[in-house]
C-alpha cells in the first residue's frame, strides 16, 4: 500500500517530521510518500495561509500518481473536499481522523493547538465535517507552528496547560491540533493520564483502514470529478494552462 | 492482533456470517474471535431487543480476556458506552465505524437497513455518537434481520430500492445498516454506482487502526472503570453474584 | 389509578424511599407500586450499570400487570424506549419528566446530580429525549448515589454548591438528578431561592396527567410491540426461555 | 385547585368550547375558569394576530386573582414568557404541553393545524420552547380556526389527511395544533391508529401536575417580576395608566 | 427614501435619541421618522414589557403610511414577524441587523446589553431569527435602559467590562444590545480595540440597503397580509373596532 | 465610496456582467471596480474549482488598494475568511449577503442555483457562516454557470422550476445562487410571486451599508492580519516570493 501524506506548508523540516511520524504509524508494507507543495507559506497559521495552502496542495495533487490514499496533514486547514473531487482514492484529512478516533476513545474530546487565532478555523473545519457535536473545547498553547518541537520541554508544558483547560471544559480525550507533534504526544498523555491522539498517526491509520476495505470516494454527488474546462495558469507548478 | 467481534444476538448462523465477514476484512495477522452472548433474542429488531442485547453483550464481555479491541457488531444497538467503561482496549461500534468511513468518502451519507421500526434507534445512536449532522437519510427495506441473505436477489433488490431513496434525499454514499450484509454490499454498490460501506468491515478496519496507534479508552471521565459494588445476579452467565 | 414506580437498582432502601416520595407526590386515589428489579447493581453510577439496569428493569416489566402507567425512576438511566415498546400504558422516565416541568417553570434549567462520571449519560439522555436545548448545565456533587440522604447536612450543602454553579451557568430552575432526593429538595430550593424539581415527584405527576388523558403509547412506529421471537434465557427472572 | 384557561381570541363560542374541553380534562376537584381577553381578534391566524393576543392576554392576566395555575390555550401563540414573568403560579402553554405529552408517547411527533400560514409560528414556538428536536412535521388542513368544528365530517377528513402526511414524514404520534379541537380528537386517532394529543387537555393535565408538586415559576432570572414603572395606557382594559 | 424608525417604548427622550442616531446613520436623502407607540412602558426590560410593546408598536404601524421601510428599534424585543405580516415594505429589527453586520466583521460576535434579565429574550430573538449559531456570549452591564447615557463614564465602564467578558468567551466583534447607545459606541470600541456595532445604525443602513434593491416582504407564506376579520378594540389607539 | 466586486473566475464576460449588475445596484456616488483573478478556472463549479478560485482571489486582493469594501462575487465559493484576515475594509461574500437579505424578507429562504453538484458547497458555506438555520432548500437547475444567460427563456424556466421546488419545501423567499443572474431575477420573481434576491445586488448594498457605518473588520481574533513570514512563490501573479 502506498499513501501520500501531504504537508500543507513548504517547510522541509516539517515535511520530514510528518513523514517520520507517518512512517512510524504505518503498518508494515505501507509505503509513505511525504510530500509538500512547491509554493505557499512555510507555515499555515490562519485563514489566509490556509486558503493558499489549499490551492497549493491541490496543485501538487494534480501530479500525484499511483497512490492508494492521500492523507492531508494540515490540522484545521482547507482543501479536503477539493482533493476528494480531484481524486478517487480515499482522502483523509487529519483533522477528521483525529476527531473520529477521539470519539471512539472518549465521551467528549478536546483539541490542543498552536496559536489562538487558529481556533476559529479548526472549529469551522469540525462543523463542516459534521464532527463538532462532541467537541468540548479547542484550546491554544500560544506557540507558533514552527516553534513546536524546538524547545521540547516548553512545548510539553504548554500543551499540558492547554490540555488541562480542555479537560476542565468536559473533554476526556485530547487531539494534538497540529501536524508534527508526534514527539510530544506521549509526554502529554502521561502528564494528564488521558489518551492523546496524534493527528498524523490517526490520519495514516484511518487511510490504511479505508484502503483495506477497497472503497473509493463517491463520484455521484459533490465529489464527482472536476468538469473539464479551461483553468488559466493552472496547475501553477507548470503553468502550462493545462486542463485537468 | 486479536479482535473480538461481538454479534449482539444469539443466532449462531449470523455470528458465523459476521465472523466470516470480519475475517475477510481483517489484515493478515489479525485474529478474529467471533462471539455472541449466551442469552437474548435471536435477532435484535427494536428498542426492547436492543436493551436486552446490550446487557447480554456486557455480560459476555466480562469474560473476554486477551483481546486488543472489541468490535460491537450490532447496527444501531445499545451498549457501546458500557463496554467502553468496562474495558480499556478500544471499543468500536459498527454503527459509528460505518458512519465515519462514509463521512470520509462522501459529502452526506445514507443508511439502508432492515425493518422500518429500527430507523428510530439508528437515528438515536448516530445523534448520541455525535455523527448525525451529515446523515441525509435512514431508509428501510422492510426485510427482517434474519431474512437478509436468505433470498439474495430479493435482498439486493430491496436494498437498491432503499438506497435509491437515500440518494434522492441527498446522500452520495451508503452504509449497510445491519451486521451480516457483507455478501450483498458489492451488488448494491454496482447497481447504484456509489461506495457502500459494510459496517462489520468498517468496524474491523477501524479497530485495527486504533490498535495500531496504541491508544486505549479514556479512564478519567464517563468511561472510568465501573465502581466496585454488589451487582445482584450479575454476571448473568454464571449467576454467582460476583463483583466486577 | 395504579402506577408502577420502578427503581432501577436493587437497593431496597432506595426503592422504599422512592416509593415514599412517589406516594407523597401522588394524588388521592392513585396507588403506587414501588418496584425494583430482581437482579443488577445496588446503585447505578455509570454506563455499565445503566445498561445492566435497563435490561433488569425490562425483565421486571414483563411481569407487571394491571397498571395504568410506569414511571422509570432512574435519573439518566437507559431503557425507557424499550419499556415503551413492551407496554402500551404510558411510560414516563423521571429524567424527561423533571426536564419538562423545569422547562415550564424557568427559562433554562440545570441538573444537580451525584458523581461527575454520570454527567455524560444524563447529557446523552436529554439529547436523545429531545430536551437538551434549554439545559444550561449538569453539575455534580461528588456524592455517590447511596451516600445521598445519609448525612443530610452534607448532602444539602453539596447540592447547594452544585446548584450555585448551575445558576452561574445560566439556569434559573434546577432538577435533582437522582431518585431518592425528595427529602433535600426543599432545603436546596430555600437556600438558592429557585424552584427545585424532584424527579420522582415530576414523574408521578406527569404519569397521572397522561393517564388522565386516556392516551397510550404509539404502536405504529419504533414503539410497536416487540416481535414474537425466541429470546434465549429471557426473561431472566424465570429463565424459562419464554417468548414475550 | 383552580385553573384559569385562557383563550387567546375574543370568540365567546371558542372560549366556551375550550372551557368545556378543559372541564372534561380536569380532575375532580379542579375548578376551571375559562377566560378570554376583552379585546383583540376573534381568531388568531398569523403573527400579527398572535402578538395582539399576547398583549390582550397579558392585559387580562393583570386582573386574574386566586388561581393556582394558568393555561394559555392558544396553539403556537405568543406571550407565555410574559405571563411567566407577571405571575408566580405555573403558566402552561398548550403548545408546550401537547409537545411534551407527545414526546412521552411516541418517538417523533407531528402537529396537525389549521391554515398553512400558521406553521411558521408553531415552528418558532417549539424552537423557542426547546422542544423542536423531535418534531417530524407540522402539517396544515387549510381550515380557518373558526371553521373547525362547524362541519365535523369535513374537519375530521382534513385532519386525517394532514395527519397522514405527518406520519409519512416520520411522526408516530400527533398533536392537534389548535384549541377547541377536542371533539375531533378521537375520530382522528381511530382513523390513523395513533395517539392524538388534544392540546387543551394536555395543558390542563400538565397544569394540575405542576400544581400538585407545589412548584412555582422561577423569579431569579428572565421571569423575575416585572419592574415597577410607568406603563402608559396599560393595562388597556381599564386604561387608568396604572402601574403593575 | 423615508424610513420609520420605531422606538418600542414611550420615553420621548429615548425616541429623540434613537431618531438622532438614526439620522446620523442615514445616507443623504434618507428621511427618518422617529416614532413611538402611544401606549406601553417607558422602557422595555423583560418579556412582559416586550409583549406589551410588540402590540403597541403594531398598533402604531397600522397608522404609518408612505414609508419605504420600517426599522424596529427595540433590541431583543418581540413583534417583528407581526410587522412583516402587516406591511409589505421591508421591516428590519435592529437585533437582526446588528447580528448580521457583526457576522460580516468578525468570526463570532458578542452582545453587551443592559440588565441580566433581558439576556434570555435576546437569546430567544437570535435563535428565532436563525442568527444564534455564531453568537459567543450575551453579557449584561446591570444598567437599566433609562440609566444608559445618564452617566456616560459609568456607562462606558460598564460596557467595557461586559465586552471584556464577551471577548473572553470567544467573541471578536461586539453589538450594543440596546437602542440609544450610539454615543458610547466609539468609546467602547476604542477601549477594547474591536468593532462595536450600534444596533440602530445597523438597522438604518440595512433598511436603506434593502430599499435600494427594490425588494419587499414575501406575501406567500407566514408573512401574507393579515386576514380581514373583527379585532375587538383594535387598533387600540383609536378604539373604533376597525378591521385592518 | 469605492467597492471592489471580485468575480472568482476568469471569464471576462461574467466579470463584465457582474460589474454591470453591481453598478446597477450601487448608490449614486459609489464607484464599482469589477475585478477578476489573473489565473484559475473560467467558471467555478465544485469544490476543486472553488479552492483554486479562493487562492486566486486572495492573490488578486494582495494588489487591491484604496477601496472601501470588497464584495466577493462567487456564490458558495471559498475564501471569504482569508480576505477578512488580509484586509481591514469590510469583506462581504454574496452568499452571506443574499441569505441575510432573504432572512429579512421571508420566514424561510430557498436557494436556486446552477448544477446539482454545487449544492453541497453552498450548504457548507451557509453552515460555516452561521446562516443555515432558516434555509429551507437548495435546489439546482442543472444549468452550468456559463450557460446561464445564454438562453434567457430556458434559464428562466429552469429557475422557476427549481424555485417551485424550494417553495414546496417551505421557503417563502428565494436567492439566486450564482453571480451574473441579475437579468433573470425579475422574471422569476414575477412568475412565482415571491421576492427573489440577486446575490450581487445584495452584496453591493450590504457593503455600502457597512461602509456607511464606518466599521471595519475585527483584528483581534481569527481575522487578525496575516503573520509576516515567507510564502514561497506567493503572490502568484508576480511570483517574486514577496512577503505580505
Automatic annotation (TrEMBL), chains A, B, C, D, E, F:
Family assignment from sequence similarity: Belongs to the HyuE racemase family.
Highest taxon of the lineage: Bacteria
InterPro entries, per database record: Asp/Glu/hydantoin_racemase, Hydantoin_racemase-like, Iso_Racemase_Enz_sf
Name of protein: Aspartate/glutamate racemase family protein
Lineage: Bacteria, Bacillati, Actinomycetota, Actinomycetes, Micrococcales
Amino acid at each position: 500500500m502506498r499513501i501520500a501524506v501531504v504537508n500543507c506548508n513548504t517547510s522541509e523540516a516539517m515535511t520530514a517530521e510528518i513523514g517520520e511520524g507517518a512512517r512510524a504509524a504505518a503498518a508494515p508494507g505501507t509505503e509513505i510518500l511525504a510530500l509538500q507543495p512547491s509554493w505557499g507559506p512555510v507555515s499555515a497559521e490562519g485563514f489566509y495561509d490556509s486558503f493558499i495552502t489549499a490551492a497549493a496542495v491541490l496543485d501538487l495533487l494534480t501530479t500525484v500518481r499511483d497512490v492508494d490514499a492521500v492523507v492531508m496533514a494540515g490540522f484545521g486547514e482547507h482543501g479536503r473536499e477539493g482533493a476528494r473531487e480531484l481524486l478517487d482514492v480515499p482522502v483523509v484529512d487529519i483533522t477528521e481522523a483525529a476527531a473520529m478516533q477521539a470519539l471512539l476513545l472518549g465521551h467528549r474530546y478536546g483539541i490542543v493547538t498552536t496559536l489562538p487565532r487558529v481556533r476559529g478555523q479548526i472549529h469551522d473545519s469540525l462543523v463542516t465535517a459534521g464532527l463538532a457535536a462532541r467537541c468540548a473545547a479547542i484550546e491554544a498553547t500560544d506557540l507558533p507552528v514552527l516553534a513546536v518541537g524546538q524547545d521540547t520541554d516548553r512545548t510539553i508544558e504548554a500543551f499540558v496547560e492547554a490540555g488541562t483547560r480542555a479537560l476542565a471544559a468536559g473533554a476526556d480525550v485530547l487531539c494534538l491540533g497540529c501536524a508534527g507533534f508526534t514527539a510530544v504526544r506521549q509526554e502529554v498523555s502521561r502528564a494528564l493520564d488521558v489518551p492523546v491522539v496524534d493527528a498524523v498517526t490517526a490520519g495514516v491509520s484511518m487511510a490504511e483502514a479505508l484502503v483495506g476495505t477497497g472503497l473509493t470516494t463517491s463520484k455521484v454527488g459533490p465529489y464527482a470529478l472536476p468538469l473539464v474546462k479551461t483553468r488559466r495558469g493552472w496547475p501553477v507548478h507548470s503553468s502550462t494552462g493545462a486542463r485537468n
